[in-house]
Write a structure and sequence with these properties.
4-stranded antiparallel beta sheet, 4-stranded mixed beta sheet, single chain
Length: about 160
């Protein structure tokens, strides 16, 4: 309940019912193991924010590289998909570093896994991508080649409704 202080559930329901595509995206977040939950409200846009609140990065979104360019660049052992492509297909966005850190204030997430986060274009143009996790009671931001993928790395998403 600590994530729901002041949430007007009638407004959340009305917004979801008015946007079947958002309801479908929420279902995709759930289907892939994200355990989506309302974590905030953006006063500028008037949107409710749903984040993946599963303890570890969603199981159905792991073992993916960062984006299509990284996937295409791999010569061997290509992963099944990329985080950016999967998010786009689901109608959601990867969390930003700021959003990831906000999520970590709500609980302890990714203590055994890690999650790709939106990467600035300058870093991406140089072949890198960013990911975060929580270890030693601290949230860390790291870098890796965008074409890398690991069984314990996936992505968390935000859905704006």
């Amino acid at each position: 309940m600590n994530r729901h202080k002041g949430v007007d559930w009638a407004r959340v329901q009305a917004k979801l019912e008015a946007s079947p595509d958002k309801l479908w995206s929420l279902s995709e977040m759930e289907r892939t193991g994200g355990e989506p939950d309302v974590v905030g409200f953006d006063r500028k846009t008037g949107e409710f924010l749903f984040y993946d609140c599963s303890a570890e990065t969603p199981k159905g979104r792991r073992s993916v590289c960062y984006d299509r360019a990284a996937l295409d660049a791999r010569k061997e052992n290509k992963p099944k998909d990329s985080a950016v492509d999967m998010a786009h297909a689901m109608g959601v966005e990867l969390l930003t570093e700021e959003e990831y850190r906000a999520l970590q204030k709500l609980g302890e997430f990714d203590t055994k896994t890690s999650s790709w986060v939106q990467t600035p274009s300058r870093i991406r143009e140089l072949g890198g991508a960013l990911f975060c996790d929580r270890r030693y009671d601290t949230v860390f931001l790291y870098h890796n080649g965008a074409d890398s993928y690991y069984a314990a790395r996936g992505f968390r998403a935000v859905l704006r409704v």
